[in-house]
Every structure is written in structure tokens, then in C-alpha cells.
UniProtKB/TrEMBL annotation:
This is Phosphatidate cytidylyltransferase, mitochondrial. Belongs to the TAM41 family. It comes from Micromonas pusilla. The lineage of its organism: Eukaryota, Viridiplantae, Chlorophyta, Mamiellophyceae, Mamiellales. InterPro entries: Tam41. It is a peripheral membrane protein. Pathway: Phospholipid metabolism; CDP-diacylglycerol biosynthesis; CDP-diacylglycerol from sn-glycerol 3-phosphate: step 3/3; Lipid metabolism.
Length: 217
């Protein structure tokens, strides 16, 4: 596995790939991957709620300790991937989605969402032998979004929805071979957008000054 951006080792993160079907690209993000200097009261309340939901209410909460790690998996065929994942990990899906099947999962993601389906609050104890330790803290759960690889690359290059491209402009820990060209173009697009916004504000200031000058005259 390639070295993750912003992390010394990717081994804890990549352990999740032993549980799910093969993916083309994966990355982790958020406070469960990158240590946060301080945790808010709402973060601690959320952590306690997750512990209680998992039947681990006796565990003493630790300020700043993440309880859930966030992933995105890019795959060639979401339909085939979800079919295999439902066979391996049926508990990852809501009961109604298990009943409807993988085709419904993909259809909902494509037609209602932005092409990404998330399974959330999956107990980390199910991720191979990784235990409860992950990244900079102790995670009890993880969630993962599954997206078609072409959809990910298209959003990176063209900013179709900015759902994934926007996420990947923030720190992410990639641990599978990724589309470097797409990432580079995404970064260039971010700079271009920031530059355009900067110039737009500059033109607005110039126009306001021109109007003030004309008013004075």
C-alpha cells in the first residue's frame, strides 16, 4: 500500500479492505483519520451516543477520541460490488436495502444522490484483526461510501457535483493507487476557482470605487 497523505502508516486503515470486496481506490478522511487539536462538546456527545448504541456504555469516554472512521471506496461496477458485499456483509446494509437488493442500492445512489451509497455505523470489530485501534485514536465503528470509479474521476476533473471533489480538496489518506492526473486537475481547478473569486471581488471593489467617484463628480 502506498504511503497515505498526512499519515505515517496506512496499515490500520487498509485493514478494512480485508472485509469488503476488492476496490480500485480508497481513502479515509475526517477526525477518525487525522487527529484534531480539540474536540467540541457536540463531538463528545456524539461519541458517547455511538458507544451507547453499540452496547459499550460502560467504556469511559475520552475527550477528543474519534469513534468512527470515514472511508470512500471507488469501484468499477457498483452493482457487482454491492451484490458481493451483501453476500459477505449483509449486516452493513439497512434491512429494507437488503430486501430490495443491490440494484436498488445503485439506483438510489445514482438517481437520488450523487452516485455514492454510504453504509454507516459498521462495528470496527468486524474489520479483520485490527481490533479497536485505528489511526490516531480508538475507533469503535466506521462508515464507507461506495462510488463508481468513473463518477469519482469525472467529479474530480469536471466538478459535476463537488461532493467528492470538494472532499478531496481537504486532507485525505489514500491507500490504494489513485488517479494522480485527476487529483492534480482537481487541485488546479480549486486554485482557478479561488483565483476567479478573488478577481471577482477585486472587480466589485473597482466598480464601487468608480461609482463613488462618479457620484462625487
Amino acid at each position: 500500500a502506498a504511503a497515505a497523505r498526512g499519515m505515517a502508516s496506512t496499515t490500520p486503515l487498509s485493514a478494512v479492505l480485508e472485509v469488503v470486496p476488492e476496490v480500485e481506490h480508497a481513502f479515509g478522511y475526517g477526525s477518525g483519520v487525522f487527529a484534531q487539536p480539540q474536540a467540541s462538546a457536540s463531538d463528545d456527545a456524539h461519541a458517547d451516543a455511538v458507544r451507547r448504541a453499540s452496547g459499550d456504555a460502560a467504556s469511559a469516554p475520552t475527550r477528543g477520541t474519534p469513534t468512527m472512521v470515514d472511508y470512500v471506496f471507488a469501484v468499477r461496477s457498483p452493482l457487482e460490488w454491492h451484490a458481493e458485499n451483501m453476500r459477505r456483509n449483509p449486516s452493513h446494509y439497512a434491512p429494507h436495502l437488503r430486501a430490495l437488493g443491490p440494484a436498488a442500492v445503485v439506483a438510489i445512489a445514482d438517481r437520488v444522490g450523487v452516485g455514492v451509497h454510504f453504509n454507516t455505523l459498521v462495528p470496527w470489530r468486524g474489520a479483520a484483526d485490527a481490533g479497536s485501534t485505528l489511526g490516531p485514536g480508538h475507533a469503535t465503528h466506521y462508515k464507507y461510501g461506495v462510488v463508481r470509479l468513473d463518477t469519482l474521476c469525472d467529479d474530480l476533473k469536471e466538478w459535476r457535483s463537488l461532493f467528492l471533489a470538494g472532499r478531496m480538496q481537504k486532507p485525505v489518506a489514500a491507500f490504494e493507487p489513485d488517479d494522480d492526473d485527476a487529483r492534480d486537475k482537481n487541485a488546479r481547478a480549486a486554485v482557478a476557482a479561488a483565483t476567479e473569486e478573488k478577481y471577482a471581488k477585486g472587480f466589485e471593489i473597482v466598480d464601487n470605487l468608480r461609482l463613488l467617484r462618479e457620484f462625487d463628480e
